[in-house]
Design brief:
Length: 280
């Protein structure tokens, strides 16, 4: 098998974190959602203005290669080797079913960055949302996330666990210039994507693990366009959970068992990533 197929390490990280979005929305595909009130666009990332270059904590140097593999970007576009690698690994039907291939590298980098912030816009995701409907249960104290949601993600978690972390990260290192270029173009001319990646992983690993299924409540929508069934949006009742980053919230929504398994995978990935960092 071509070694490019293991390049999928960072896509795995993103998929791990964002797969839980659709469990948060009680959705029926055949319904037409009501027109929502205008929402202000998310502010652009802050760009450092200091003339001093920030210190790089985990520098990556892509190994020298010869022949066709020497440059990951091609005349046809920087995503071509990525698409080829993912197609060879997963098969064309799976790639079409699960991945958003247009602008894959740019969307992946933007999503990793957004997972550490308050909002990760779905339009930037490099993967398709997990199918199925959100399920909640009703208790004496109100609504909470249903166990059926946790079961929805067990196959996905098993798939993530099956991917070799060491080989995945080896290809991430090989193609690192693509990620760094996309991060600079995102608005971080002095930023270093690998440092941001490790930072986001650390934040995800610090996600709390509630002892009980979190209580939820309908999101308050002000104005005349409040959603009605089947288009209902929920949020955590606990203010401390609402204050988590986008990636942390998604991990909590997937259930403690899935959260712990995905954290174990993230620990593997982090260890491999940081072990590849060069010393300067």
């Amino acid at each position: 098998m071509n070694k490019l197929v293991y390049w999928v390490g960072v896509p795995v990280l993103v998929a791990v974190a964002i797969a839980g979005y659709w469990l948060w929305r009680d959705r029926q595909p055949q319904a037409t959602p009501p027109e929502a009130p205008a929402v202000a666009a998310a502010p652009a990332p802050e760009v450092a203005t200091s003339a001093v270059e920030p210190a790089i904590k985990y520098p990556i140097e892509a190994p020298q290669a010869e022949g066709a593999d020497a440059a990951p970007a091609t005349a046809a576009g920087p995503d071509d080797p990525v698409v080829a690698a993912l197609t060879e690994l997963l098969g064309r039907p799976a790639v079409r079913a699960h991945l958003q291939l247009d602008g894959f590298v740019q969307h992946l980098v933007a999503t990793v960055d957004n997972l550490g912030r308050s909002h990760a816009p779905p339009r930037l995701w490099p993967v398709q949302p997990t199918p199925g409907r959100f399920a909640h249960e009703q208790g004496t104290g109100g609504a909470f996330i249903g166990a059926a949601n946790h079961a929805r993600y067990a196959p996905f978690v098993g798939w993530v666990e099956s991917i070799g972390s060491a080989r995945a990260v080896a290809l991430y290192v090989r193609f690192y210039p693509l990620f760094q270029q996309a991060y600079v173009e995102l608005g971080y001319p002095r930023g270093y994507f690998n440092d941001r990646l490790v930072e986001v992983i650390d934040q995800l690993l610090a996600t709390p693990e509630p002892a009980e299924p979190p209580a939820i409540e309908l999101t308050e929508v002000k104005g005349s366009a409040a959603p009605t069934r089947p288009w209902l949006l929920y949020e955590f009742s606990d203010p401390s959970l609402r204050a988590l980053s986008a990636g942390q919230k998604i991990l909590v929504r997937m259930g403690v068992a899935n959260e712990r398994r995905l954290k174990a995978k993230l620990v593997e990935l982090r260890s491999q990533i940081t072990s590849k960092a060069t010393r300067r």
